[in-house]
Every structure is written in C-alpha cells, then in structure tokens.
Amino acid sequence: MSKQLPYRAVTAHGDVVDVRFALHDETVSPMRVQQLLDALLAALDREIGVLGETANGDVLQALCMATAIRARIIHAPTEVTSQLARELLERALHGVAQAHHQPAHSGHA
After folding, report:
1. Is the dihedral angle over the CA atoms 89, 46, 49, 13 positive or is it negative?
2. Sheet of 16-22: strands edge to edge?
3. Would you kindly state where each structural domain of the chain is located, as residue ranges?
4. What is the CA radius of gyration of the chain?
5. Overall pTM > 0.85
6. Which of 38, 9, 7, 5 is nearest to 104 (CA)?
C-alpha cells in the first residue's frame, strides 16, 4: 500500500477540502511534500491578493507551466520526468476527486 498524505485545504471563502493524497512509492519526505504544498498555496493566495481578479484557468495554466519547467530542469531524460509529472498529477487529481468537500456556512446569525 502506498504512503498517504492527509491534507486539509481551507479556501478564502471558508470551504474545507479534506484530501488523502496517494504519494509516489519513492517519496522521500511526506513532511517536506506537505511543507512545499503549504508554501505554494500560500504564495498563490498572496499573489492573487496583490494582482486582483485572476481567472481560475489562468492559475491552473501557470501551475502546469511551472510543473513542466520543474520537470525539465531535473537532470534526467525528459521522457522520464515528463511521465513522472503526468503520473503525479493523475494521482493528485484522483485524490481530490475522492476528497470530502465542506462548503462554507452562509446565512444570517
């Protein structure tokens, strides 16, 4: 059974998403993966706050481009790192599809 990373994301609107990400078998440090994920999501929130209205598709496109660049600068054959990036994205998308999503409460007190 592969290692899992439980992760809770809270959106700016207060939605809560609880995910259990399946980690790659060769993951060295689940804690470091979580720390990097926290830092990336915080940086995105911070930048969007500064830039203002930003389309979700633009955010996803930038993240995909960053992943592609990161995969390319690894000292390994491009075919290997590209395939790894695809596999990791599929695992992450599967985890999110199975996640528990709790919308923020709205209403009047």
Report:
1. positive
2. 4-10, 16-22, 100-102
3. 4-102
4. 16
5. yes
6. 9
